[in-house]
Amino acid sequence: MLALSLVALVAGTSAEGERCDMDLCSAGNTCVSVSSTATEVPMCKRFCNGDGNCTGGAGSLCIITLGMTTQQICTTNC
Question: Is the overall model pTM greater than 0.85, yes or no?
Fold first, then answer.
């Protein structure tokens, strides 16, 4: 039988769209490396179940799947 355990982490203060290399992300967000160039930047992204959960500006969508999971995060309007 497979045993699972949950771990609670302390929330930081970095909000959605902010860098998370110096502080943890606030509750409801996760730190992911994003890149539009060769240099990756750690940014807080909001967990979501649908577009209505996304608060990253007009056009922010719940369409990014994390790795091989079913968990999704929001895009951020730029």
Answer: no
